[in-house]
Design goal:
- By secondary structure, this protein is α/β, with parallel strands linked by helices.
- The chain contains 10 helices and 10 strands.
- The strands form 2 sheets. Strands 9-8-7-6-2-3-1-10 form an 8-stranded mixed beta sheet. A two-stranded antiparallel ribbon has the order 4-5.
- A hairpin with a 2-residue loop joins strand 2 and strand 3.
- The N terminus is likely disordered.
Amino acid sequence: QLWAEMAEKMDTEDNPEQRANKGSASGLSISLHPLVIINISDHTTRKKVQNQGQQQRVLGVLLGTQEGRAVELCNSFELDYKIVDGKLQIDMQYLQVKQEQYKKVFAKYEPVGWYSNSTMRLTPGEVQPGDIDIHREIAGIIENPLYLLLDTSDGAGIRDLPVSLFESEVHIIDETPTLTFARSQYHLETEEAERVSVDQVSHLLPTGATSASSAMSSHISSVHSAVKMLQKRIQAILALLREMQAGKVPKDHKLLRMVAGLCHRLPAMQTQDFKDEFVEVYNDTLLVTYLAAMTKGTNSANELIDKYNVAFERQSRRRGLF
Protein backbone atom coordinates (compact mmCIF):
# COMPACT_ATOMS: atom_id res chain seq x y z
CA GLN A 1 0.00 0.00 0.00
CA LEU A 2 2.88 2.38 0.80
CA TRP A 3 4.51 1.70 -2.57
CA ALA A 4 1.17 2.15 -4.32
CA GLU A 5 0.64 5.52 -2.63
CA MET A 6 4.13 6.63 -3.61
CA ALA A 7 3.60 5.56 -7.21
CA GLU A 8 0.29 7.40 -7.35
CA LYS A 9 1.85 10.56 -5.95
CA MET A 10 4.72 10.40 -8.41
CA ASP A 11 2.39 9.82 -11.37
CA THR A 12 0.28 12.83 -10.42
CA GLU A 13 3.14 15.05 -9.28
CA ASP A 14 3.21 18.37 -11.15
CA ASN A 15 5.02 21.18 -9.36
CA PRO A 16 6.74 24.35 -10.64
CA GLU A 17 10.22 22.84 -10.39
CA GLN A 18 9.24 20.01 -12.70
CA ARG A 19 7.70 22.39 -15.22
CA ALA A 20 10.81 24.56 -15.10
CA ASN A 21 12.99 21.60 -16.10
CA LYS A 22 12.00 20.39 -19.53
CA GLY A 23 11.05 16.75 -19.54
CA SER A 24 12.19 14.18 -22.01
CA ALA A 25 10.40 13.96 -25.33
CA SER A 26 11.54 10.41 -26.11
CA GLY A 27 8.30 8.86 -24.88
CA LEU A 28 9.98 6.06 -22.93
CA SER A 29 7.85 4.08 -20.49
CA ILE A 30 10.19 3.36 -17.58
CA SER A 31 9.36 0.80 -14.89
CA LEU A 32 11.45 0.87 -11.71
CA HIS A 33 11.62 -2.13 -9.38
CA PRO A 34 12.12 -1.56 -5.62
CA LEU A 35 15.13 -3.91 -5.66
CA VAL A 36 17.13 -1.23 -7.48
CA ILE A 37 16.34 1.37 -4.80
CA ILE A 38 17.18 -1.10 -2.01
CA ASN A 39 20.52 -1.93 -3.65
CA ILE A 40 21.48 1.75 -4.00
CA SER A 41 20.41 2.51 -0.43
CA ASP A 42 22.41 -0.46 0.87
CA HIS A 43 25.45 0.60 -1.19
CA THR A 44 25.22 4.15 0.18
CA THR A 45 24.81 2.98 3.78
CA ARG A 46 27.81 0.65 3.62
CA LYS A 47 30.02 3.37 2.17
CA LYS A 48 28.85 5.79 4.84
CA VAL A 49 29.69 3.35 7.63
CA GLN A 50 33.10 2.60 6.10
CA ASN A 51 33.74 6.36 5.91
CA GLN A 52 32.99 6.83 9.62
CA GLY A 53 29.56 8.33 9.14
CA GLN A 54 30.46 10.75 6.34
CA GLN A 55 28.44 10.72 3.12
CA GLN A 56 30.35 9.35 0.14
CA ARG A 57 29.56 9.26 -3.55
CA VAL A 58 28.59 5.85 -4.93
CA LEU A 59 28.27 4.71 -8.54
CA GLY A 60 26.76 1.65 -10.15
CA VAL A 61 25.20 0.18 -13.28
CA LEU A 62 21.48 -0.36 -13.83
CA LEU A 63 20.38 -3.71 -15.25
CA GLY A 64 17.11 -4.35 -17.00
CA THR A 65 15.33 -4.99 -20.23
CA GLN A 66 14.13 -2.82 -23.10
CA GLU A 67 11.43 -3.76 -25.58
CA GLY A 68 10.67 -0.94 -27.96
CA ARG A 69 9.89 2.15 -25.89
CA ALA A 70 9.35 0.16 -22.65
CA VAL A 71 12.32 0.04 -20.27
CA GLU A 72 12.30 -2.02 -17.08
CA LEU A 73 14.94 -1.45 -14.39
CA CYS A 74 15.23 -4.71 -12.44
CA ASN A 75 18.64 -4.91 -10.73
CA SER A 76 21.99 -3.16 -10.34
CA PHE A 77 25.61 -3.71 -9.42
CA GLU A 78 28.28 -1.46 -7.94
CA LEU A 79 31.15 0.31 -9.70
CA ASP A 80 34.62 1.11 -8.49
CA TYR A 81 36.18 4.50 -9.11
CA LYS A 82 39.00 6.77 -8.04
CA ILE A 83 39.43 10.54 -7.92
CA VAL A 84 42.19 11.98 -10.10
CA ASP A 85 42.73 15.74 -10.16
CA GLY A 86 39.32 16.30 -8.59
CA LYS A 87 37.48 14.21 -11.19
CA LEU A 88 35.90 10.78 -10.91
CA GLN A 89 37.44 8.08 -13.07
CA ILE A 90 35.55 4.80 -13.38
CA ASP A 91 37.43 1.52 -13.42
CA MET A 92 36.28 0.38 -16.88
CA GLN A 93 38.02 -2.99 -16.62
CA TYR A 94 36.08 -3.74 -13.42
CA LEU A 95 32.86 -2.65 -15.16
CA GLN A 96 33.44 -5.01 -18.09
CA VAL A 97 34.25 -7.95 -15.78
CA LYS A 98 31.11 -7.39 -13.68
CA GLN A 99 29.03 -6.98 -16.82
CA GLU A 100 30.21 -10.34 -18.16
CA GLN A 101 29.58 -12.04 -14.80
CA TYR A 102 26.04 -10.73 -14.53
CA LYS A 103 25.37 -11.65 -18.14
CA LYS A 104 26.11 -15.29 -17.32
CA VAL A 105 23.74 -15.32 -14.34
CA PHE A 106 21.01 -12.96 -15.63
CA ALA A 107 21.07 -13.64 -19.35
CA LYS A 108 17.99 -11.53 -20.13
CA TYR A 109 19.24 -8.42 -18.27
CA GLU A 110 21.37 -5.87 -20.07
CA PRO A 111 23.04 -2.66 -18.82
CA VAL A 112 20.59 0.16 -19.50
CA GLY A 113 22.11 2.97 -17.45
CA TRP A 114 23.94 3.99 -14.30
CA TYR A 115 23.10 5.31 -10.85
CA SER A 116 24.58 7.62 -8.28
CA ASN A 117 23.65 9.34 -5.05
CA SER A 118 23.71 13.00 -4.14
CA THR A 119 25.56 14.08 -1.00
CA MET A 120 24.09 17.59 -1.21
CA ARG A 121 20.47 18.73 -1.25
CA LEU A 122 19.27 19.19 -4.84
CA THR A 123 16.08 20.61 -6.24
CA PRO A 124 13.95 18.28 -8.37
CA GLY A 125 15.40 17.94 -11.86
CA GLU A 126 18.89 19.07 -10.83
CA VAL A 127 22.05 16.97 -11.09
CA GLN A 128 25.45 17.22 -9.48
CA PRO A 129 28.48 18.89 -11.06
CA GLY A 130 30.46 16.42 -13.13
CA ASP A 131 27.56 14.06 -13.75
CA ILE A 132 27.50 14.85 -17.45
CA ASP A 133 31.19 13.89 -17.75
CA ILE A 134 30.52 10.54 -16.06
CA HIS A 135 27.53 10.06 -18.34
CA ARG A 136 29.70 10.56 -21.42
CA GLU A 137 32.15 7.96 -20.11
CA ILE A 138 29.36 5.47 -19.41
CA ALA A 139 27.87 6.13 -22.86
CA GLY A 140 31.06 4.73 -24.37
CA ILE A 141 30.01 1.26 -23.15
CA ILE A 142 26.22 1.51 -22.74
CA GLU A 143 24.21 2.92 -25.63
CA ASN A 144 21.85 5.76 -24.65
CA PRO A 145 22.16 5.13 -20.89
CA LEU A 146 19.64 6.27 -18.30
CA TYR A 147 20.77 8.07 -15.18
CA LEU A 148 19.14 7.37 -11.80
CA LEU A 149 19.90 9.81 -8.99
CA LEU A 150 19.02 8.93 -5.39
CA ASP A 151 18.99 11.91 -3.01
CA THR A 152 20.64 10.68 0.21
CA SER A 153 21.12 14.10 1.80
CA ASP A 154 19.68 14.91 5.22
CA GLY A 155 15.93 15.44 5.12
CA ALA A 156 15.42 13.83 1.72
CA GLY A 157 12.52 11.45 1.20
CA ILE A 158 10.34 12.82 4.00
CA ARG A 159 7.37 13.48 1.71
CA ASP A 160 8.24 11.93 -1.65
CA LEU A 161 10.46 9.18 -2.96
CA PRO A 162 13.88 10.87 -3.47
CA VAL A 163 14.54 9.26 -6.87
CA SER A 164 15.01 11.06 -10.18
CA LEU A 165 15.55 9.52 -13.62
CA PHE A 166 17.22 11.33 -16.50
CA GLU A 167 17.82 10.75 -20.18
CA SER A 168 20.53 12.43 -22.23
CA GLU A 169 19.66 14.71 -25.11
CA VAL A 170 21.76 16.77 -27.49
CA HIS A 171 20.80 20.44 -27.83
CA ILE A 172 22.36 23.20 -29.88
CA ILE A 173 23.62 25.85 -27.46
CA ASP A 174 25.55 28.78 -28.93
CA GLU A 175 25.76 26.88 -32.21
CA THR A 176 27.51 23.99 -30.45
CA PRO A 177 26.01 20.52 -29.88
CA THR A 178 25.78 20.10 -26.12
CA LEU A 179 24.82 16.98 -24.15
CA THR A 180 22.22 17.75 -21.48
CA PHE A 181 19.99 15.83 -19.07
CA ALA A 182 16.22 15.68 -19.40
CA ARG A 183 14.13 14.40 -16.53
CA SER A 184 11.97 11.36 -17.28
CA GLN A 185 8.84 10.07 -15.61
CA TYR A 186 8.71 6.53 -14.23
CA HIS A 187 6.42 4.25 -12.26
CA LEU A 188 7.12 1.60 -9.67
CA GLU A 189 6.70 -2.02 -10.75
CA THR A 190 6.64 -4.60 -7.95
CA GLU A 191 6.34 -8.36 -7.82
CA GLU A 192 5.04 -10.42 -4.91
CA ALA A 193 8.51 -11.32 -3.62
CA GLU A 194 9.55 -7.66 -3.77
CA ARG A 195 6.47 -6.57 -1.84
CA VAL A 196 7.35 -8.95 0.99
CA SER A 197 10.98 -7.78 1.02
CA VAL A 198 10.08 -4.10 0.94
CA ASP A 199 7.52 -4.58 3.71
CA GLN A 200 10.14 -6.26 5.88
CA VAL A 201 12.83 -3.66 5.14
CA SER A 202 10.48 -0.73 5.75
CA HIS A 203 9.72 -2.03 9.26
CA LEU A 204 13.35 -2.44 10.30
CA LEU A 205 14.66 -0.01 12.88
CA PRO A 206 17.83 2.00 12.20
CA THR A 207 19.67 -0.20 14.71
CA GLY A 208 18.74 -3.29 12.73
CA ALA A 209 16.24 -4.53 15.32
CA THR A 210 12.91 -5.95 14.24
CA SER A 211 10.61 -4.83 17.05
CA ALA A 212 8.58 -2.90 14.49
CA SER A 213 8.05 -6.03 12.41
CA SER A 214 5.65 -6.63 9.58
CA ALA A 215 2.02 -7.60 10.03
CA MET A 216 2.79 -11.26 9.39
CA SER A 217 5.61 -11.30 11.95
CA SER A 218 3.37 -9.58 14.50
CA HIS A 219 0.63 -12.16 13.95
CA ILE A 220 3.06 -15.08 14.30
CA SER A 221 4.57 -13.53 17.45
CA SER A 222 1.15 -13.07 19.04
CA VAL A 223 0.14 -16.67 18.24
CA HIS A 224 3.44 -17.94 19.67
CA SER A 225 2.92 -15.93 22.88
CA ALA A 226 -0.64 -17.25 23.26
CA VAL A 227 0.44 -20.88 22.80
CA LYS A 228 3.32 -20.41 25.23
CA MET A 229 0.98 -18.92 27.87
CA LEU A 230 -1.51 -21.77 27.35
CA GLN A 231 1.26 -24.32 27.83
CA LYS A 232 2.37 -22.69 31.10
CA ARG A 233 -1.17 -22.71 32.49
CA ILE A 234 -1.75 -26.36 31.51
CA GLN A 235 1.51 -27.29 33.23
CA ALA A 236 0.37 -25.43 36.35
CA ILE A 237 -2.97 -27.33 36.38
CA LEU A 238 -1.19 -30.68 35.88
CA ALA A 239 1.25 -29.93 38.68
CA LEU A 240 -1.66 -29.10 41.03
CA LEU A 241 -3.54 -32.28 40.10
CA ARG A 242 -0.40 -34.39 40.75
CA GLU A 243 -0.02 -32.75 44.17
CA MET A 244 -3.66 -33.54 44.97
CA GLN A 245 -3.25 -37.12 43.79
CA ALA A 246 -0.17 -37.56 46.00
CA GLY A 247 -2.01 -36.13 49.00
CA LYS A 248 0.34 -33.19 49.39
CA VAL A 249 -2.48 -30.72 48.72
CA PRO A 250 -6.08 -31.12 49.98
CA LYS A 251 -8.55 -31.93 47.27
CA ASP A 252 -10.70 -29.06 46.03
CA HIS A 253 -13.82 -30.67 44.52
CA LYS A 254 -14.98 -27.39 42.99
CA LEU A 255 -11.65 -27.03 41.17
CA LEU A 256 -11.72 -30.68 40.11
CA ARG A 257 -15.22 -30.21 38.61
CA MET A 258 -13.96 -27.19 36.67
CA VAL A 259 -11.00 -29.20 35.32
CA ALA A 260 -13.30 -32.11 34.41
CA GLY A 261 -15.66 -29.73 32.61
CA LEU A 262 -12.74 -28.25 30.71
CA CYS A 263 -11.58 -31.71 29.65
CA HIS A 264 -15.09 -32.67 28.53
CA ARG A 265 -15.20 -29.59 26.30
CA LEU A 266 -12.20 -30.86 24.36
CA PRO A 267 -12.95 -32.93 21.24
CA ALA A 268 -12.73 -36.69 21.57
CA MET A 269 -9.29 -37.80 20.41
CA GLN A 270 -9.74 -41.58 20.40
CA THR A 271 -12.67 -42.04 18.04
CA GLN A 272 -12.26 -43.87 14.73
CA ASP A 273 -13.59 -40.89 12.75
CA PHE A 274 -10.94 -38.64 14.24
CA LYS A 275 -8.19 -41.16 13.51
CA ASP A 276 -9.30 -41.54 9.88
CA GLU A 277 -9.51 -37.80 9.32
CA PHE A 278 -6.17 -37.19 11.03
CA VAL A 279 -4.41 -39.84 8.94
CA GLU A 280 -5.92 -38.40 5.74
CA VAL A 281 -4.80 -34.85 6.53
CA TYR A 282 -1.38 -36.11 7.62
CA ASN A 283 -0.90 -38.08 4.39
CA ASP A 284 -2.01 -35.10 2.29
CA THR A 285 0.51 -32.88 4.07
CA LEU A 286 3.30 -35.39 3.50
CA LEU A 287 2.34 -35.67 -0.17
CA VAL A 288 2.43 -31.89 -0.68
CA THR A 289 5.80 -31.70 1.07
CA TYR A 290 7.14 -34.55 -1.07
CA LEU A 291 5.91 -32.92 -4.29
CA ALA A 292 7.49 -29.62 -3.27
CA ALA A 293 10.81 -31.36 -2.61
CA MET A 294 10.60 -33.14 -5.99
CA THR A 295 9.82 -29.86 -7.78
CA LYS A 296 12.71 -28.10 -6.10
CA GLY A 297 15.09 -30.94 -6.94
CA THR A 298 13.93 -31.01 -10.57
CA ASN A 299 14.41 -27.24 -10.85
CA SER A 300 17.92 -27.49 -9.41
CA ALA A 301 18.75 -30.29 -11.84
CA ASN A 302 17.48 -28.23 -14.78
CA GLU A 303 19.57 -25.24 -13.73
CA LEU A 304 22.64 -27.46 -13.39
CA ILE A 305 22.06 -28.96 -16.86
CA ASP A 306 21.65 -25.49 -18.40
CA LYS A 307 24.88 -24.29 -16.82
CA TYR A 308 26.67 -27.47 -17.93
CA ASN A 309 25.46 -27.02 -21.50
CA VAL A 310 26.60 -23.41 -21.55
CA ALA A 311 30.00 -24.28 -20.08
CA PHE A 312 30.75 -27.23 -22.37
CA GLU A 313 28.91 -26.15 -25.51
CA ARG A 314 32.07 -25.17 -27.37
CA GLN A 315 33.88 -28.35 -26.34
CA SER A 316 30.97 -30.48 -27.54
CA ARG A 317 30.97 -28.73 -30.90
CA ARG A 318 34.67 -29.36 -31.33
CA ARG A 319 34.25 -33.05 -30.57
CA GLY A 320 31.43 -33.27 -33.10
CA LEU A 321 33.74 -32.15 -35.86
CA PHE A 322 35.98 -35.26 -35.56
